[in-house]
Amino acid sequence: LPSQQKGVGMHEPLVDAEGFPRSDIDLYQVRTARHNIICLQNDHKALMKQVEEALHKLHAREKEKHAKDEAEALAEAMSQSQSLPQAFAKVNTVTPGSPASVSGLQVDDEIVEFGSVNANNFQNLQNIATVVQHSEGRPLSVTVIRGGRRVHVGLTPKRWAGKGLLGCNIIPLQR
Fold this sequence. Notes:
41% of the residues lie in helices and 18% in strands. The chain is built from three helices and six strands; from the N terminus they run H-E-H-E-E-H-E-E-E. Strands 1, 2, 3, 4, 5 and 6 form a six-stranded antiparallel β-sheet that branches. It has two domains: 11-83; 89-172, Roll (Pdz3 Domain). The protein has helices spanning 27-82, 99-103, 125-134; strands spanning 89-94, 110-114, 117-118, 140-146, 149-155, 168-172. The chain is of the alpha+beta class. Residues 56-148 form the PDZ domain. InterPro entries: Nas2_N (IPR040815), PDZ (IPR001478), PDZ_6 (IPR041489), PDZ_sf (IPR036034), PSMD9 (IPR035269). Interacts with PSMC3. Part of a transient complex (modulator) containing PSMD9, PSMC6 and PSMC3 formed during the assembly of the 26S proteasome. This is 26S proteasome non-ATPase regulatory subunit 9. Keywords: Chaperone.
């Protein structure tokens, strides 16, 4: 409200103690200013309501999209489990306390990748022995199929109480 209206705001009375219009202010100017302020407040409320509704819609869409993405990821995982990579060898023993046992390798794990060795370049167990010797003390990425699922194991070949650097026995799979 204009400053020359003696501090009359939105709620001060426009009449004096006897109910007559105040003579010390421009009533018309005060009423017009109050009207404009109320209109602006209503416009603001309406705009904020629109913003809120738009935000609700946006979040609902985001939620739907997230659910759809999860469903697609699940479907992809399911189709991937049908097309599991070719295994070339199998773990048939794991000695407790050995590097293989510590890394989580288990009996009957079918080996898909052992470091750089995979079904495409595997000729015999000497391939794996070579990778193990060159990786002593360094983690190897080993991918196995366990219970129909792909599992990654970090295996670090190293000297331990038992024989060899792994402490497990691997046999080639007959194709």
